[in-house]
Design goal:
CATH class of the largest domain: Mainly Beta
Order of helices and strands: HEEEEEEEEEEEEEEEEEE
Number of helices: 1
Strand content: 25-35%
Radius of gyration: 35 Å
CATH architecture of the largest domain: Sandwich
Shape: elongated
CATH topology of the largest domain: Immunoglobulin-like
Structural class: mainly beta
Length: 311
């Protein structure tokens, strides 16, 4: 018996060594390299509006590189569990109302619909501009404190866009009126023309011809002057076109701010409203008829007429 065991000991040693090594290697592969992925590569909001962005942990393909677009690895129980990251917002933007937000994950996900996806809200009350968001800072990992993580966040652009803050004229406008739009930010004059700022007569669906003067009020007010007086008692619709880089496909037409960000009206509706449209009605034409019955003292009476003979 001893002789038989003595002959089998080397084989048993090898089997035990393999069984012990497999979980160690697997745990190492699961925990060593992961990516932080954001739900979008482009978001558009206006001043005072916000947008929700989802974050999740995704194992890198083969757990060797830092590029999640090459394909996700398998999600195992240890992936990302207990991991805390700090999502940082650039100057002029807030994340959940502050400059940063800590997110602690319970595991990983392969897409934005997984159980371990977390959401934050980005907002801005600043001027129009384009901000790059993708900075995530490692804070801690309670599940595997000794692991080394490679966090490659998927950067995305947050466009804080200009919007139309006021319009004129109101109803009852004179036929020789100008049409104005005032924006929240200084605009690029060359982006405002007859293709992006349209005045249309509703009754015959024809666009009004005219010209644009120089931007006023520090570049925030555009003025359109019709080539001829408008028709009396008619309704006109004005459309100032915007764009949305976060749309699919992207809409890159429309008027732009002085730093190149497209006009955008509202990100709180679905679908979002990118154009500004309003209507006004011109004053009715004056009447000039006389009704003598309403003015008896002024009406001629036959018995009071006198005739002077011509000699």
């Amino acid at each position: 018996m001893r002789t038989w065991l003595r002959g089998k000991l080397p084989l048993l040693f090898v089997v035990c060594a393999v069984l012990l090594a497999v979980p160690v290697v697997a745990a190492f592969a699961d925990d060593v390299v992961n990516d932080v992925v954001a739900s979008s590569n482009s978001k558009t909001i206006t001043k005072g509006k916000s947008t929700v962005v989802k974050y999740w942990i995704q194992p890198v393909n083969n757990n060797t590189d830092g590029n999640p677009t090459n394909g996700a690895g398998q999600c195992n129980a240890a992936d990302g569990a207990g991991l805390t990251l700090r999502i940082n917002a650039p100057t002029g933007v807030t994340v959940d109302g502050g400059s940063s937000k800590n997110l602690t994950f319970n595991g990983c996900s392969t897409d934005a619909n997984g159980a371990n996806v977390q959401s934050v809200t980005f907002a801005s009350n600043g001027a129009a501009g384009s901000y790059n968001i993708g900075d995530a800072t490692y804070v801690s990992d309670t599940n595997s404190p000794a692991a080394t993580y490679n966090f490659t966040t998927t950067d995305f652009s947050l466009d804080v866009a200009p919007f139309v803050s006021s319009t004129s004229p109101a109803n009852g406008a004179a036929t020789d009126t100008t049409i104005q739009a005032t924006f929240s930010d200084a605009m690029t004059a060359s982006s405002i023309d007859a293709t992006t700022f349209k005045v249309v007569r509703n009754s015959n669906n024809t666009q009004v011809a005219g010209s644009f003067g120089p931007l006023m009020m520090g570049g925030t007010r555009a003025t359109f002057t019709p080539s001829a007086p408008l028709a009396a008692g008619e309704t006109y619709t004005v459309t100032v076109e915007g764009g949305d880089r976060s749309a699919s496909p992207q809409d890159l037409t429309g008027v732009k701010s002085s730093n190149g960000v497209l006009l955008f009206q509202d990100s709180s509706t679905n679908p979002a409203t990118k154009d500004k449209t309003w209507s006004f009605t011109t004053a009715a034409a004056p009447t000039s008829s006389c009704d003598w019955s309403k003015h008896p003292r002024a009406s001629p009476s036959p018995e009071k007429l006198s005739f002077i003979p011509v000699r």
